[in-house]
Structure formats: structure tokens, C-alpha cells
């Protein structure tokens, strides 16, 4: 099923939306107040001040809200995460209890807001969990500050300029993307609850599952001076956000960190993951049954479970000589971090190593790649373990023996050779570099063969 086919689900309204809701239990009237484990801070950052809730200890998680809500939407999830994580929950620029703002709503700039908060709270790196407008800030943060983001969760809203953005804009449900300006603000002034009810009702699987207490709470916050203005400005920045994201993807390619794309079954559903595959290499799909767009209100328990499971997920390591679970696309393999020399490599400084699975220095299976630049030679050497090798790209000149002048065979992409344990072999590139993938059973090592005495 292609992206546009999946997006048709998002165009459903009324009874069709309710019909997609499934049989999941309705949401409880969840609290919007944070527990005593959290403190609040007003943090000056990037020319504004954000209202921030902070609690717990351990690895950091940042939770970013969307339109029609504030950081209060995360209260139930934050309480769970705070048992094992440091949880940071800001109100976005100009929204909730953050300082009023008239400008700076481009998502790249708001990403800098969040980086400033992280800096002030000494959080060098974090998992980012986001919903709606928060997705857009989160994507800007993960792309422009990738070193600060470990994992990314994006919930039930597209990102400007990513995937079929122009097709998404044609959806009549999204007329509010272009609704804004002084006249629109005057029309909504004093009628904030009426305006917001439209979103809470039409984008829910069942409007009754967006609690009345939450509606009252958020309507009061959005009725405060400058708050609806900030909301409209979030949408008004979409055109620039799309330009920024397209330019970034063109220049740098997709995100490399793991991404969980969550869609409500009665809203984006599987289309959420389909859209994000245009912007990230490693995307997992999760569809929450019985929910529309407002996942934390409609199905808080199921949504929190999906998020916590993803954040707690760790790679299955090779233990006791067993092969770990690894399934990588070519894009994912190419995106793995490169390093210099290590166990089982030649140690030649110019060659870069990518460890795909296992650890050659330890007992058990491993897979690694060597990325060899042009005109680079590996002198005759041996390894203690038996190894298999496949040429992934380029031309690789390989031969057996203790003299680099012995018979050499040029191997191109798809070429296969073996490196039997203790058998001397050598290799080199010429005008073209090469990438070679090696597998073996560790521990491995490399012993260079002394050059034979000249006669």
C-alpha cells in the first residue's frame, strides 16, 4: 500500500471515523495536573521564556505538545516515565503558560528553543516524544541537532515538506492550516471553546472520549491574551517550515535515529509511518485502536504503553556466542556510524570500519564493513578465525599469499571470497575505492606477515 493510498484513511469523517474506532475501551477522565514529583521552571531560551515541568531521574525524555493542548496533555505519561527517566515537558513558544510571543514560530527556530531548555537543564541528549505541532518542532530538532536526539516518537500529524505534504494540504479537514490573521483572531476571540471543540470533536474517534475537564482546562488557557494568536502563528509558519525541511533533506538525507510513528486508527493510522519513511531511515509503525488524533486523551494507556516500550527497547546483543537479531536495509547499513581500526581490521588509518552486528573482539558472530578509499593497500596478513567476505561496491583486488605481488583477482559488487583462519592474504584498491562486508566468529585478530627475505 503506497503513501497516498494510506492517506485516504485520513480523509474519513463523521460516522466513518467512528466506525474505524474498533472496540477499545473509552478513555478515562485523565488528570491534566502533574504529580508532586515534578517542579516547574520558567526557562529563558532563544529570546523567549518557556514554562517547563521537570521531574524524575535517569535518561532524559522531552515531551512536546501540539495545538489544542499544552504540555499538560502529557501528565499521565510523564508520571510513568519519571520512575526511570528525567522528564522535561515545555509549553511551546507563546502557548500555554510560556511567555507571549509574536514571532519565531518557524519550527527550526523553536527547535532552538528546546535546545536551550535542554542546555539549561544539563541534558546533553534526550529521547523526544511529540504530537501534532510538536512533531514539527521535534523533526527540526532531530534533523538540525541529531547529536542531541537518541530516539524520536512522532504522533498523528504530518511534518511540513516531508513526504506527500502538498497532497496532505488538499484534505478539506485541514482548512485551519490557512486560517489565521487579525480578522480570524477577532472572530475567535471570546469563542475559543467553540473553535477548539471543532478540533476535539472532528478529530476524535468518539468525541465523548476527549474529557470535558480537559476541554474546560485547555479552553481557558487558549482564551488568555496572546495564546490563540500564537496558535495561529504556528500554522502560518508551515510554508517556511516546508521550505526549510525540503532543503535540509535534499542536502543531508533522512534522519538516522530510530523513529516510532504512531497514528490513531480513526485518524492517520498507518499513514503516519508511511509519511515518515520519507524523512527517516528507521521507522516503526504503531496504530492505536479506538483513537483518533487525540491519542493521550482518547487512549492514554495504550498510547503510553507503545511509547514506553519503544523508549525502553534495546538492541539484542550477541551473548554466549549466539547471533543477535539484526535486520538492516541498505540505507540503514550505510547510515551506521563509522570508526577507525578495531579488532579484525587491518589497522590501516585511511580505512573506515562500520560494525553492523556483534563484536569481533569477543566470542560470537560478527558482521563488519570496511570502507576503503582509492589507492589503498592492505599488506599480507592473517586472522585467527575463518571469515567470509562480499564486495558491496567498487573494485577490490584480492589475493592469497605472503607477497602482494602474488596472483590477484579483481572483484566487483557481489564478488565473494573467503579468508580461512591462518591463511595469508592481501588486498588493495586502485583508482576506485571499495566497500567490503566481512563475517566471522570472534574473537578475531589481525597478524601481518613479515615480508619474505629477498634473494
Molecular structure report:
With 455 residues, the protein is an alpha/beta fold. It folds into 2 domains: 3-312, Alpha/Beta hydrolase fold, catalytic domain (Rossmann fold); 330-448, Jelly Rolls (Sandwich), CATH 2.60.120.10. The chain contains 15 helices and 18 strands. The protein has helices at residues 3-7, 14-19, 75-81, 107-120, 133-144, 165-169, 182-188, 192-202, 212-222, 227-236, 238-252, 271-276, 295-298, 300-312, 330-335, and strands at residues 38-45, 48-56, 60-64, 86-90, 126-131, 149-155, 259-264, 283-288, 352-357, 364-372, 377-382, 387-394, 396-400, 409-411, 416-419, 425-428, 434-442, 447-448. The strands form 3 sheets. An 8-stranded mixed sheet has the order 1-2-4-3-5-6-7-8, with helices on both faces. Strands 9-10-17-12-15 form a 5-stranded antiparallel sheet, with no helix packed on it. A 5-stranded antiparallel sheet has the order 14-13-16-11-18, with no helix packed on it. Strand 3, helix 3 (75-81) and strand 4 (86-90) form a beta-alpha-beta unit. The radius of gyration is 27 Å and the shape is elongated. The N and C termini lie far apart (69 Å). The model is unreliable at 1-31 (pLDDT under 50).
